[in-house]
Every structure is written in structure tokens, then in C-alpha cells.
Amino acid sequence: MRLPILTLTAIASLFVAADAGAQTYDPRYPVCMHVYSPGGFGGGGGDYYDCSFTSLPQCRATASGRSASCDLNPYYAFDEPPPPPRKRHKKQH
To answer: Do 71 and 35 meet the contact criterion of CB atoms below 8 Å apart?
Structure first.
């Protein structure tokens, strides 16, 4: 009885650990650089995102000469126009 419980606990902890790194975009910055890393000999490569740029020109300067591209961060809260003012209704007596 003890072995199945320990096995289930180990499997559950692996799933929790895998979800911890799921957030690849930093919502504080509007531009992300996607760096393409080839696997090379023995694998071990992997693409990654660097979301630490405040503008596309800044990102493109950093990506220059590298296997990388710059894109807008889909999770950044760009300035949205304020909602229209609410109309006030006059009280009827």
C-alpha cells in the first residue's frame, strides 16, 4: 500500500514542477526577443524568450547578428483608451 502512494506522490510532484516554468513572457516589458537555439551535437538546445526590452529598436539592436527575432509581448498591458464618461441621469421629481 505504501509503494503506490509514494509513486503517485512522485508523479504529482513532477507535474507541479513542470508547470512552474510555464510563464515565458514577462508582462512588465512590451517587447520580447525570441532566441532560436539549435540542438547541436547531443541535443540540449532550446528556444527561449527574453522579455526585457522597452522598444522594438532596442530589441533589434540586441538581436542583430544572432539567430533571434523581436515581437510585441502578447501579455503586456499596452495603454488602452479610457472608457467613455458615463452619462448622469437627472432625477425626476
So the answer is: no
